[in-house]
Hints:
globular, 7-stranded mixed sheet
Amino acid sequence: QVQLVESGGGSVQAGGSLRLSCAASTYTFRRYSVGWFRQAPGKEREGVAVLDTDGTTRYADSVKGRFTISQDNAKKTVYLEMNSLKPEDTGMYYCAADSFRPRDWVSAVGWDYWGQGTQVTVSL
């Protein structure tokens, strides 16, 4: 079992920045792919970034060039640095982990472990 705890959400104006953290309960966290997802009211949860065990990162087109996913193994934490935030980035952000992630990483289906989420609100 892996417990995940997100933090770092908040309210910012458009153009601002936030850094989200996903802290894991295990030092074997490096053996898991980790994804960041967001869910806006009335919409499906969708992947925005993923970090695989080989260090490969992938991003949704909507956040490329603005968001960066990274990992600090010593701290058992994965981060999502979000810059140039837009109102459409508003939503609940979740991290997920899986030792063998779904082929379609953007989908929330099939990921083994989830955190409780942290709210991000971007206003004009």
